[in-house]
Amino acid sequence: MRITEWPSQDRPRERMLAMGPQGLSDAELLAIFLRTGVRGRSAVDIGRDLISNFGSLRVLLSTDRKKLLAIPGVGPAKLAPLIAASELARRVLREESSERSALGSPAAVRDYLRLTIGSRDREVFLALWLDAQHRVLHAEELFAGTLTQTSVYPREVVKAALRANAAAVILAHNHPSGVAEPSHADEMLTRTLKSALALVDIQVLDHFIVAGARSLSFAERGIL
């Protein structure tokens, strides 16, 4: 039975408008984005399939689109709203991180980085430029590389920091391998960048490695 044939009080969209989004399950919220089902399966059924396959909304919204398209019932028309929802979530996190102290909200920084680079299939190196009050000025993707490595040039990082008029920075890069552990090269690079940026009075507050849903903070590990 199609959702349009359900009693109005059971339809996700009508329930959300009547009760608010908090009253809906994850699958029902996804169904509103998906809009329609396929023969024999409602949009709610497809939403349940997506959550079952990826384990959580966070993983689902940050996963590669090719994997989403492999789910029966998910085509380009249904994928587009999910991509839009993921990008809206990134932008909300970006706005929130710029409105409050990055140091006062490490969870917000972690969430932003997971959404931004956690699911990338190539290594990227990103900087969160901060002002003197440690509020985020903007995020900048500085370098992109291969599946296993990215070439990072300290001189270019310093130039970007000066362009941003930053007083501090949080560095981050991803590990597509899924292992959120620093290599010896990661540690050496961090020390080099910290020294280079210190010459222009820019403080490196942290360096995060993001691997899917996992992340590691150099500052928390005591290796910054």
Blueprint (SSEs and pairs):
Blueprint: H1 12-19, H2 26-34, H3 43-54, H4 57-62, H5 65-69, H6 76-99, H7 106-117, E1 124-130, E2 136-144, H8 154-164, E3 168-174, H9 184-198, E4 203-211, E5 214-217, H10 218-221
Parallel strand pairs: 3-4
Antiparallel strand pairs: 1-2, 1-3, 4-5
Helix pairs in contact: 2-3, 6-7, 8-9
Question: What are the main properties of this structure?
Answer:
224 residues; alpha+beta; 5-stranded mixed β-sheet
Short description:
The mean pLDDT is 81. Strand 3, helix 9 and strand 4 form a beta-alpha-beta unit. The chain is built from 10 helices and 5 strands.
Shape: elongated
Count of DSSP strands: 5
Run of helices and strands: HHHHHHHEEHEHEEH
Radius of gyration: 21 Å
Explain what the structure shows:
The chain has 224 residues and is an alpha+beta fold. Helix content is 47%, strand content 16%. It has helices at 12-19, 26-34, 43-54, 57-62, 65-69, 76-99, 106-117, 154-164, 184-198, 218-221; strands at 124-130, 136-144, 168-174, 203-211, 214-217. It has a 5-stranded mixed β-sheet with strand order 2-1-3-4-5, sandwiched between helices. The model has no long low-confidence stretch (mean pLDDT 81).
